[in-house]
Design brief:
Length: 375
């Protein structure tokens, strides 16, 4: 009476890709044999299924069917640094069930795998090993490391990284326009995963307002990770807007569109006809002034276009990944945010000396529900 696990998901596995376990038993010849399979997420049993042997005495089970709905994208936190809570430990408990009548027999539980909300393409899922290639090394984004990350001063800016649960140092260094260091902030934390909100208001909790006014850009590093550079986009000829979306790695990406933001709207009204009257001595009269159609609710469908400045091919290739994002939020320069839906995009290639440059336009839609006062 023994159950053996032959494969389990890689550690730090994306929740929306297959989380496949292969297991076997030496009792599959018993009458009425089946496996009872339980998915356990963060110590809680999510499901119980019956699975039968498939090849020889082996069977497989994909736990992502249950896990993907039980883990959410990271919340948009307000603090400078927060533990990324949607990282959860998942394991499989398998029990032999056989006999007349069938009864539970031997049980075995797999080792725990960390999983987090992410959904990779088939090629990425088969080639990326987060534990060896990303933990303590890469942030959860494909934004080109060779590019400064342009941001607006009044918006939220999120950055996430997976950790091995050992103490890691967060280091933030401010620089002025002449590349001179202004000040450095460091702190040690022990997290399975980190989320940073690098808004200017959060940075003011560890730096002075005067220092930030002098800051042209700042760098971020956690432990021995790659270094990311964030540059304030203060020089733009039109009203700049920033778009944020949830990416396939379970992080939040953002990009500043600096040109030609246009808006237009279409009103859709629902109404009814109601007649009113009034007494005139002993007569009750209806008049055109007191009857007619009344709007009781209106949907205003706003559409708009936001356009980049000229960007490199590498940056444009990353920006295209944003089309597969979700949860789009559009920030204006004042930091006010609205939820939008991206509808279409287009791009144009140009040439500046010997460099191929592009600009790209994204079209968005948002709906406002307006209720009229009841009369």
């Amino acid at each position: 009476m023994a159950i053996s696990f032959h494969s389990i998901p890689n550690n730090y596995a994306p929740s929306d890709n297959p989380l496949t376990y292969v297991f076997s038993s030496d009792q599959t010849a018993q009458d009425n044999f089946s496996f009872k399979v339980e998915v356990i997420l963060a110590g809680t049993v999510l499901s119980e299924d019956k699975v039968f042997p498939e090849v020889s005495n082996r069977a497989h089970f994909d736990a992502s069917t249950y896990v993907l709905d039980a883990i959410d994208l990271p919340a948009k936190t307000t603090g400078l640094e927060t533990e990324l809570l949607p990282v959860r430990g998942v394991k499989l408990r398998v029990t032999e069930n056989y006999g007349t009548p069938p009864a539970d027999q031997a049980t075995s539980t797999s080792t725990e795998t960390y999983t987090f909300k992410a959904g990779l393409s088939d090629i990425d899922w088969s080639s990326i090993d987060f534990e060896t290639d990303w933990v303590n090394q890469k942030f959860l984004t494909n934004y080109p490391q060779t590019e400064d990350w342009n941001i607006l001063r009044n918006q939220d800016v999120f950055l996430q990284i997976l950790s091995d649960n050992t103490s890691q140092q967060l280091k933030i260094i401010l620089y002025d326009a002449n590349d001179a260091s202004i000040n450095t902030y460091t702190v040690n934390q022990t997290y399975i995963a980190w989320q940073l909100n690098l808004s200017e208001s959060n940075l003011e909790t560890v730096f002075s307002a005067l220092e930030l006014d002098q800051t042209a850009y700042f760098t971020i590093q956690i432990g021995t990770s790659e270094i990311r550079t964030f540059r304030y986009k203060d020089d733009y000829c039109w009203t700049a807007h920033s778009l944020m979306w949830g990416n396939r790695f379970g992080g939040w990406d953002t990009f500043v569109f600096v040109h030609n933001k246009t808006d237009k709207g279409k009103v859709k009204a629902r109404n009814y006809i109601k007649q009113f009257g009034q007494w005139d001595n002993l007569s009750f009269n209806y008049t055109p002034l007191t009857s007619g159609e009344i709007d009781f609710v209106k949907d205003i469908e706003n559409t708009g276009t936001i356009t980049t400045e000229y960007i490199t091919r590498e940056l444009q290739n990353w920006l295209v990944e944003g089309l597969a994002g979700l949860g789009y939020v559009l920030y204006d320069p004042a930091g006010d945010a609205v939820t939008v839906k991206i509808t279409t995009t287009s791009w144009t290639e140009g040439q500046d000396r010997f460099d191929d440059l592009f600009f790209e336009s994204w079209k968005y839609m948002r709906t406002n529900l307006n209720r009229t006062v009841k009369l």
